[in-house]
Amino acid sequence: MGLLSEGRPLKWTEIKDALKQIRTYGVDQLIQVYHKCKNRQRDAFTWGDEVELTLVRFDHENKKVQLLLKAHKLLPALRKLNEEIQDEACRIAWHPEACDFVVEGVPFQPYGFLPSHFNTVEANMRLRREQVQKLLAEQSDCDFILNIAAFPRYGQGAYTHPAVEYGPPHSAEESLCFPDSLLSPIHPRTKSLSENTHERRQGKASVNIPIFKDSSTPSPFRDDLFKDDPNVKDDHIHLDSTAAGWGCCCLQVTFQAESFEGSLHLYDQLLPLCPIMLCLSAACPIWRGYLSDVDCRWNIISAAADDRTAVERQQENMLSRYGPTPFYLTDEKKHLNDLDFPVCDEVVQKLISQGIPETLSHHFGHLFVRDPLVIIEEFLHPKDDSNSYHFENLNSLVWNTLRLKPPPLDDDLMGWRVEFRPMDIQMTDFGNAALTVFVALMTRVILTYNLDFAIPISQVNENMNRAHHRDSARQKKFYFRFGNEISEMCMNEIINGNNNFPGLVPLARQYVGEREDIDADTRFTVEQYLLLVSKRAAGTLMTNASWIRQFVLSHPSYKQDSIVTEEIQYDLVRKMEQISNGHEDCPQIRQPNMETHTDLHAE
Ligand code: ADP
Ligand code: MG
Ligand code: MG
Ligand code: MG
Ligand code: MG
Ligand code: MG
């Protein structure tokens, strides 16, 4: 959600008056970071994941499930609980999210270089849910913490516990169905971000998602709630608030590189993998209670978080600040930056004059095209040059599929990091661990075998769009490079190989096979994860999105009208709870021999 600093957030008009000054502070801080940290060498390969988790309450009598607005009560208790845990490997860092029904959990200590750490990810993720579940259970046996990428009827009817009021008087963004009371009261930043986005944009957020047309879906489909709204398109599901996007949950992984150059190289090689992993992670087929024709959340948050003015929306290549990664960073890959995204020329020239490489200066120049949407008053004018608040703040308010995280000025232990951000959260801890470990293995594979997957940005973006389509893992082809060839390949070829390309999973197996320091237990775990990725790409396992879709389509009360009723949602989320807590098996989304694996890790 962005940098969390205590204090009073400025109003948009106050930020607007100070924009020039803030930009100067930010650029100067970036230059200072660069000079201080450009020669760091041999930083450890540390890494960590972030999972966003959803709180829900079941009402078994009425066959209902609602979002539980309780994060603000749980977070202080969780903080206290973890302060008392001595063993740092068992501690969790909990972060507030924009919505009060979401919490973010992160391992307290990042994982380290040891391959055996691949074996601790899933247990750590399970521990996170267990910590929260235990607190919830003290109050009620109907409350649960689950991995839900987009709550099916988020924005439809009355969908929270406790009940809240809906409609424009209850929303700073004038939303009809996403009131301000959804937002986390724990940090003033949240409300400020929502208000300032709305004011800068000068109008309501407008998200249109193509509906899945079933045999009894009205044609054209028109959402009654928005029948007088000119922003609404026929045959589309409509969302009208930034909160529609911030309520979605994702899985992110951050990797520290050994050096500044290493971080740019890693970023450039992870860039083309973003749409591939988005496609494999797809988990969002339902929006506001309707089955849609998309499977992932990315483009939906992109539209919801869009702060561009009407004029900016007309400018070519001026995309939402929540969007695909616009540039490769190394000069070597500059020729693949084939889309002309706007940059702040003055900033680019200043950075180049300070010795920052040209292509990287363009990346930063593009960051500085954006206005900082949140500024905490106490940090507006730096008292000294001991921290890099303005740069960090801006960097954390631009949400691309990758984020280069330079070392903060006030933390000498932190190196250059790359954050991998495209993936939807998976229903099970196993699924989240599998994708996390797979991406971590890809970073090792790329560096060890010196692979080059880079393709033009325009093709990466086309892949991003294809990844969103219903059942893209089985239906779509993606641009992919191997050697000197770029061709369109299906997911099965990219992951499992073809005559010309060994495939990402076989490459990962080769890497694991060649490392002598991996113990048998870790090998077994990693192989289960590789099997999940491999089978999903081959189509023998379903993505979460396909499984959810199929659950709705085959529900006895579904009427072929694209509508996901309260009852269907109840049964679906109940099923997700049973599966993710190990009470029920689900062979369509994970391989059946998982029981052995779970036993191995019972601690
Ligand atoms: P943000 O929300 O800005 O992305 P978080 O603090 O929520 O940041 O998450 C940061 C992630 O980076 C966590 O997964 C954490 O484990 C990981 N991390 C923290 N320090 C390091 C480090 N030195 N090297 C690599 N990863 C790190
Ligand atoms: Mg988050
Ligand atoms: Mg954050
Ligand atoms: Mg975070
Ligand atoms: Mg989020
Ligand atoms: Mg993050």
TrEMBL record:
> Which domain of life does this protein belong to?
Eukaryota
Q: Which reaction does it catalyse?
A: L-cysteine + L-glutamate + ATP = gamma-L-glutamyl-L-cysteine + ADP + phosphate + H(+)
Give the record's keywords alphabetically. ATP-binding, Glutathione biosynthesis, Ligase, Nucleotide-binding
Question: Does the record bear rRNA-binding in its keywords?
Answer: no
Q: List the pathway annotation.
A: Sulfur metabolism; glutathione biosynthesis; glutathione from L-cysteine and L-glutamate: step 1/2
Q: Which InterPro entries match?
A: GCS (IPR004308), Gln_synth/guanido_kin_cat_dom (IPR014746)
According to the record, the residues making up region (Disordered) are 583-603
Which SUPFAM superfamilies does this entry report, sorted A to Z?
Glutamine synthetase/guanido kinase
EC nos: 6.3.2.2
* GO biological processes: glutathione biosynthetic process
Q: Which residues form the signal peptide?
A: none
Show the Pfam families listed in the entry: GCS
Q: Per UniProt, what is one GO molecular function of this protein? A: ATP binding
Q: What do the Gene Ontology cellular component annotations say?
A: glutamate-cysteine ligase complex
Entry similarity comment:
Belongs to the glutamate--cysteine ligase type 3 family.
Name by which UniProt lists this protein: Glutamate--cysteine ligase
- Write down the species: Adineta ricciae
